[in-house]
């Protein structure tokens, strides 16, 4: 009439294979809402405000740098355009031209140009 120790203890209910197939996962015994929430995850209001201010300052600085870079690019573009224009004007000034007064020569050059095209 002596019972073995195994029978007297409450045996855990036998659980089959999980439906998801994730056999390596253990069964959760307590609810997620009962988990302890540490202070580490909560930041104080002053720290949040400090972080916000630093982020705003960083954004403002970034915007300022972007505007400065854009202004420099515009300035460079306008300088290059002015330089190109000046160069073209100088080329035009340096051209040596002579007026052809003989109409026959004008006709010949026109015909030559038309033949090239």
From TrEMBL:
> Which InterPro entries does the record associate with it?
CCDC86, Cgr1-like
Provide the primary localization.
Answer: nucleus
Could you tell me the superkingdom of the organism this chain comes from?
Eukaryota
Q: Where in the cell is it found?
A: Chromosome; Nucleus, Nucleolus
Locate the compositionally biased regions of type Basic and acidic residues: 67-78
A Pfam family per the record: Cgr1
Keyword set for this entry?
Chromosome, Citrullination, Coiled coil, Nucleus, Phosphoprotein, Ribosome biogenesis, rRNA processing
Q: Which GO terms describe its cellular component?
A: chromosome; nucleolus
| Any one GO biological process | rRNA processing
- Disordered: region residues: 1-28, 67-90
UniProt record similarity statement: Belongs to the CGR1 family.
What the protein does comes down to: Involved in nucleolar integrity and required for processing of the pre-rRNA for the 60S ribosome subunit.
Matching entries from PANTHER family are given as: COILED-COIL DOMAIN-CONTAINING PROTEIN 86 (PTHR13557:SF1)
**Protein known as:** Coiled-coil domain-containing protein 86
- Origin organism is Macrostomum lignano
User: Taxonomic lineage of this organism?
Assistant: Eukaryota, Metazoa, Spiralia, Lophotrochozoa, Platyhelminthes
């Amino acid at each position: 009439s002596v019972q073995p120790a195994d029978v007297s203890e409450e045996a855990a209910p036998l659980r089959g294979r999980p439906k998801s197939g994730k056999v390596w996962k253990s069964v959760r015994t307590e609810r997620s809402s009962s988990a302890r929430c540490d202070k580490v995850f909560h930041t104080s209001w002053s720290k949040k405000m400090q972080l916000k201010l630093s982020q705003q300052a960083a954004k403002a600085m970034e915007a300022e740098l972007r505007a400065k870079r854009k202004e420099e690019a515009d300035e460079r573009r306008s300088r290059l355009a002015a330089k190109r224009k000046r160069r073209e004007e100088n080329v035009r000034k340096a051209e040596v031209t002579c007026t052809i007064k003989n109409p026959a020569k004008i006709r010949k050059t026109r015909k030559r140009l038309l033949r090239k095209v």
